[in-house]
Amino acid sequence: MTSEASPRVDASEDLPPASLILSPRDSGRLRESFDLETSATLQGELLDFSAWSEILTTYGRTMRVAVALTDSQGQILGKCHNAQPVWQLVHDAARSWGSGCPFCLTTHVPCTAVAEALKTGGAVMVRDQAGLTHVAVPLLLGKLRLGAIIAGQVFDRYPDPLLLRRVAKEFGVSAQRLWELAREQRPVSDAILQASGDLLCALGNAFLRQRYGAILEAKLAETNGRFRLLVEGVRDHALFTMDPTGRVTSWNGGAERLLGYAEAEIVGQNFSCIFTREDIQNHVPEKQLNQALEEGRAENEGWRVRGNRNRFWANVNITAVENAGLARGFAIIVHDVTEQRKIATVLEEARQERECLQEKLISHVSHELRTPLTAIYLFTTNLLDGVFGDLTPAQHEHLTFALDNVKQLKSMVGDLLDITRVETHKLTVDPQHLSLAKLIDDVLSTCLTNAAVKNITLRSDVAPGIPFIWADPARVRQILINLIDNGIKFASAGGNVTVATRPAENESFLCLSVSDTGCGISRENREIVFDRLSQVRSTAEASRTGLGLGLFISRELVSLHGGRIWVESELGHGSIFCFTLPVFSLAKLCAHVLTAPNLEAGCVVLIAVEVAAVEGAVQADLLLEIRKVLERCIRPGLDVLLPSMSDAQPVGTFFIVACTDDKGFEVIASRLVRELQNFDSASKLKPVISSTTLLLAPGPFGEEQIADVAARVEQLVQAHLLGKERRKWLKRKF
Amino acid sequence: MAEKKILIIDDDQHLLLALTARLKAKDYRVICAADAISAITVARREVPDLVILDLGLPAGDGFRVLERMRDLTDLVAIPVIVLSARDPADNKKRALDAGAVAFFQKPPDNHEFLSAIRHALGETVALSTFLRT
């Protein structure tokens, strides 16, 4: 048996041969949407013989050859043949072909035609010993070698009787009969055989590709149908598509149900019809499409309108559909979330109601507690203050304890109220110029009784010359008392609690610390001590007093001042609670009057009011009264009455920064004098009012000038208090 | 100087008892009223020098009493100190705006409260109380 690569058929010198024109190798251009190599099902479908039999039969009849379809291994998938006598005779005689080639009139040598054809990619012609010829053509799809078609069992020349006899003997048929049948067959020339092989090759591959296309189409249609079913089946979401201009191109059943338009009436319309009139006027539809174009998608919630003009709260998802950088349109999903929104609103209302109720409850409780507390307080203090006569030392002592408990109750009731304020954001602080040293001394003396009970020493380690702070004195007091009481609670008997100042990270803040010699706080508890209602349980400390709100409220108060609070501690080594408060700044205090419009009046002056009184020092209470009188004289927004800038002895000098002109100063001065005279009918105060100019208008004005003015005010005030440079002041006596 | 007359308007009998004792010890004359209506009647009859007013009262709250006092020429000049268990955050400004001279939350600090009473009675205007001789 011989096999040879197909010789070229030169039908014409000028034209490329048919085999080239129809070459299956061109199928490389075929787009492979499916992974053919792994899709055995698809390969089976492609080579389904029932589909091939018609075309192969037609070919066989026309060309008077037998035709078979094989897979890539050469296994026959199906065959059809015309009534070829030789073929018929041999095949009727053969019992089984096994894996052999039915086209070869031999049972023992495997036919290599299929393998050869798949390897070369072209038609391969094989001639057997009897002079019978067959052609194998490959079926190729892209790079994939799918199988082959074999056609043949024709003589390419007049048969050789000797060879025929050998075949007849091999198959056990009559040599005479074989010869007679063979002689009736007309031989086909090599060239024609070759051309018909090429034709078969082209035909087979064309059919294969057609089949491939048909299968893909069927699959696509199936997927499309499934997708359409899915889209249509979505009932609670409206799904629709639009062209780039916002006109609806498709509309699912969910959209019909949700938005109330039938597909027929909405397709082609602009999707803005589902928006409210206000939204359309505000160009919301266009804005959303633009956002989707820019960001790929846009999600939003809002009112949309159904066909029957009913509104519903919608969650809308717009996705821009692009192809090769060109906007092809939009896909939109609309979901009715009115119910969810209703639920959320109801939940929010419930939360607010609960909060309101809680606030009412707590303020009611605190109110109701205060009434009996007041009675107890008044009765106790009446007795202690001797309203009903002198007490024995024991009576006095016991009543003092009662009073301490009343005070403790009072502060707890206050804490309760503060907690509600924190939750309703009503907790406020009223910052003012504040001297810490005094306040700390005051607080320590308040806490003394408590500390004495446990034999705990209270110490103050405040650095001299600490700056004034800008804070609410009552609240700072509250924070310090909370921290000190806390320290006393945790310090073991005989220990001490120290209030100290330490440098803050930031110059505009002052850092205060309250340290105790108690049991300390573990790392995990350090995180939670400032949380609400946290009371760290420790074995060493069995007794607990208070509500566990002190640190929580302290943290809120410190942060309302703009500072922060933290704790440094180690188990067994005591704790240090630190917090920061803003430092007083003259510039900040003056900033609100030192404005460009105020300066247009003329100038900024510093006015000093001295009431350095009669003989001896002026009492602090009187100074407070005089301050109140002066507060009534200043014009809010134009003048500032400076806080007492000295920490030492009370001084009878007050300073006012005023934005005014010369005449305006006269007006203020006479007003000050009048009010002071009203207050002081006996004319004992003998006020001296003097002024000095700080800044003349017009001029550049900004933060720098404010800082300058503040610095000069500070300097002048200090100098004035020290009795220096008084010459520069314009003095008026009354 | 004649004894100053102070009217306490509060519905808590114990508070009235305790505060009366305290103020009488300071040589003030004390009269009491326990509801908003009798408060005005008593005030018009007695014309006190100072009124100490609770806000939560039967028959109309303390603000009604304040308003009524500001409407009546014989009562308009009488200083009123509000002493209430209510939250000062919500009530202090309102009370001062309505004409009260001071607001104290219960329980008040005795020292501050008594000095406010003195001040309201005009006793602090006498500089001699401040100035050392």
Give keywords.
A: 734 residues, 6-stranded antiparallel sheet, 5-stranded antiparallel sheet, 23 strands, disordered N terminus, B: 133 residues, alpha/beta, 5-stranded parallel sheet, 5 helices, 17% strand, globular
Reconstruct the topology from this structure.
The complex is a heterodimer of chains A (734) and B (133).
Chain A lengths: L1 E4 L12 H4 L18 H7 L2 H15 L2 E6 L4 E6 L3 H9 L19 H8 L3 E4 L4 E10 L2 E12 L5 H11 L3 H10 L5 H44 L3 E6 L5 E4 L1 H7 L3 H4 L10 H5 L2 H12 L1 E9 L5 E13 L2 E11 L1 H47 L8 H31 L8 E3 L1 H18 L3 E5 L7 E3 L1 H18 L5 E7 L6 E8 L6 H6 L21 H11 L4 E5 L5 E8 L3 H6 L4 H4 L3 E8 L9 H14 L5 E3 L11 E8 L1 H18 L8 E9 L6 H19 L8 E4 L1
Parallel strand pairs in A: 13-15
Antiparallel strand pairs in A: 1-4, 2-3, 2-6, 4-5, 5-6, 7-8, 7-11, 9-10, 10-11, 12-14, 15-16, 16-18, 17-18, 19-21, 19-22, 20-21, 22-23
Chain B lengths: L4 E5 L3 H13 L3 E5 L2 H11 L3 E4 L8 H10 L8 E5 L3 H10 L4 E4 L4 H11 L13
Parallel strand pairs in B: 1-2, 1-3, 3-4, 4-5
Helix pairs in contact in B: 2-3
Write structural notes for this entry.
The complex is a heterodimer of chains A (734) and B (133). Chain A is an alpha+beta fold and 734 residues long. In chain A, strands 1-4-5-6-2-3 form a 6-stranded antiparallel beta sheet, sandwiched between helices. A 5-stranded antiparallel beta sheet of chain A has the order 8-7-11-10-9, sandwiched between helices. In chain A, strands 13-15-16-18-17 form a 5-stranded mixed beta sheet. In chain A, a hairpin with a 4-residue loop joins β4 and β5. In chain A, α15 runs parallel beside α16, α16 runs antiparallel to α18 and α21 packs across α22. Chain B is α/β, with parallel strands linked by helices. Chain B has a 5-stranded parallel beta sheet with strand order 2-1-3-4-5, sandwiched between helices. In chain B, α2 runs parallel beside α3. The longest helix of chain B is centred in the first third of the chain and has 13 residues. The C terminus of chain B is likely disordered.
